[in-house]
Amino acid sequence: MARKAVATKAKAQSNVPEFSREQETEAYREMLLIRRFEEKAGQMYGMGLIGGFCHLYIGQEAVVTGVTMASKKGVDAQITGYRDHGHMLVMGLDPKGVMAELTGREAGLSRGKGGSMHMFSNEHRFYGGNGIVGAQVSLGTGLAFAAKYRGDGSVSLAYFGDGAANQGQVYESFNMAKLWSLPVVFIIENNKYAMGTSIERAAATTDLSTRGASFNIPGEQVDGMDVRLVHDAAERAIEHARSGKGPYILEMLTYRYRGHSMSDPAKYRTKDEVTKYRQERDPIEQVKVRLLEAGYETEESLKKIEADIRAIVTEAADFATTAPEPDAAELWTDITVSA
Amino acid sequence: MPNILMPALSPTMEEGKLAKWLVKVGDTVKSGDVLAEIETDKATMEVESVDEGVVKALLIAEGTDNVKVNTPIALILGEGETAEAAPAPAAAPAAEAAPSMIEAEAPAPAPTVAAAPAAPKFEAQGDPDLPAGVEMVEMTVRQALNEAMAEELRRDKDVFIIGEEVAEYQGAYKITQNLLQEFGPERIIDTPITEHGFAGLAVGAAFAGLRPIVEFMTWNFAMQAIDQIINSAAKQLYMSGGQVKAPIVFRGPNGVASRVGAQHSQDYSAWYSHVPGLTVIAPYSAADAKGLLKAAIRSPNPVVFLENEILYGSTGLVPKVDDFVLPIGKARIARSGKDVTIVSFSMGMRYATQATEKLVAAGLDVELIDLRTLRPLDIDTVIASVKKTGRLVTVEEGWPQGGIGADISARVMEQAFDYLDAPILRVTGKDVPMPYAANLEKLALPNVDEVIAAVNAVTYRS
Predict the structure, then answer these.
(1) b/e per residue, A173-210, with b = 16+ CB within 10 A?
(2) Can you give the pTM of this predicted structure?
(3) pLDDT tens digits for A300-314?
(4) N or C: which end of chain A has fewer CB within 10 A?
């Protein structure tokens, strides 16, 4: 295994780190919000209220939740591809604004002009929402460049999928990130399928955590269905980047339950495979079981959380359904900044 | 709790077949449970439940074809909910009640797509007034560009230069000479040969508020990076509803150099000027190079700044003032005249200027316009000129199809058709990849004689 020897693969942690009661509850709430929001978005897509492409995050909730819990909110920058709804919700962007953008309304985060794949928040330091596979990796490296240029102590968290991991600019970015010791964590959300192509059919080497080996970037594979392991690895990686040691790669082994986008029947995988993940590995169920076993929550208190979340999602959906479309004059605004 | 509706499962689906029910009346379902299989024109898809509760009724029988999107197909009631609000659940196939809209007898309605509102007009300011008796310094375009960057680097610490060979090598074409010495390696940054990556990196830095100047060794290499220039930089402000700016300058030599063959000899003026969100500048004179590059670096928008290798060594007079900044989007009338208008920019201005000198000597009063900025294009100056002269020739090095001259011709036809006394003629590079052989390269380029011939043709002097 010469390749492994070259790779500076960080040692995987064997013990599962425990979450405090507060962390468990926070993780549960955040992940449940994503799940219910995405289910509602899927339903609204079916009703024709959401158009175009709509990529749901269902199944992958633990990744962005664990990473964000390990980050400094409002300080660290995050950027991702087109499967971006979950990132925005966990970062604290208004669910009403996200849903209203999905329905193309004036009150949407991009005033109805971006859509599912193009939402941003300077305030929360969320840089999208990028529709071109792999582009966010170079852009995210640039966010880290700005952090180092200014010495502001922030870290850039750049998410991309197993599909994007085969794009050329990813390696151009790895090279510069390491060459200049930029504070960036590359988070590969490996959900096994790049649209309909399994990783085995697309990648000559499927352990994506070693993709930084020729640049001497440390990497590790993480069970991306367990929010505690995600959080633990993210803390390590973010600390590495913030302390000036340069980039770090986290390959999150995760799974999306739904198709690539709403119009994908997902015939390239078996029903059993999906069922197995849902029944045995579900990130939310894992936390739920622990909450009950530890006595942190009861069936009744969990129902209360569920009702709270559903109320948030229903409010967002109602808002997004009734809010007005952008004024026709908006066609011509925001093309350039008037100097 | 609402009825379950027939979902649209693709951007274009209008109806589908309810192939199979996977639940029955009385079943308890929760979020994520598969309720039914639906066949679309492309595939069989599963419909998952979003709601939790008990299936009270299945409103469409399985096997029903042509069920319209948004038809109620089932009723699920949650805990404590009653069926009062629900419509009577007769299992009537909706398809029969839905005649095709195309066959409807009613008269066809007029199109209801609202007309797009008019585009706002860009109003450029005029050039700044220079103080009386200002000293004019002769310098090369190279020096002018170098001074512009040095001055802006001194003025704003968020400005930095990134590109291949910009620092230690002092610039492949020496445009960044001595900047490393003054500003240090943190702000004058040599990159690996990695255009796609460093262009994207710089755009990301601009999103975070820095003001990068990206030097492409030539614009030919920027094709590796064009996705980041257009999809990331140019569209960001619009896609974010005005929230995220990309203040960045992409610059370097554009167009034809000399004897470097097809892959290194191309004019990208028309390519980038096509894109809303970008500002595109292509100066000819040393003064314009300086004043417009300073304006580009201060611009809050992404700017494509097209230089020309052959012009780097040409000299011109640049006013010696503290802060010489020129307006973006304003053409310069290089010579005022009344008989015929010649419009050009960048290297095309060299052919146009030499042709003008000869034509004026031959008694023709030529008006020569240097566009300077290609987007926003100062069409008003061109239109005003054509209304005066009635004749127009455009000159550029780029290919004819979809070129700058083609666009100007269309706009003049739209806005000043009645003022034209002759067809507009375009002088362009020939519609071929650039050949290497000296004689062929010469033939592929526009030249002074072609400009004179075109002017003679539109003034009916030939």
Answers:
(1) bbbbbbebebbbbbbbbbbbbbeebebeeebeeebbbb
(2) 0.90
(3) 999 999 999 999 999
(4) N
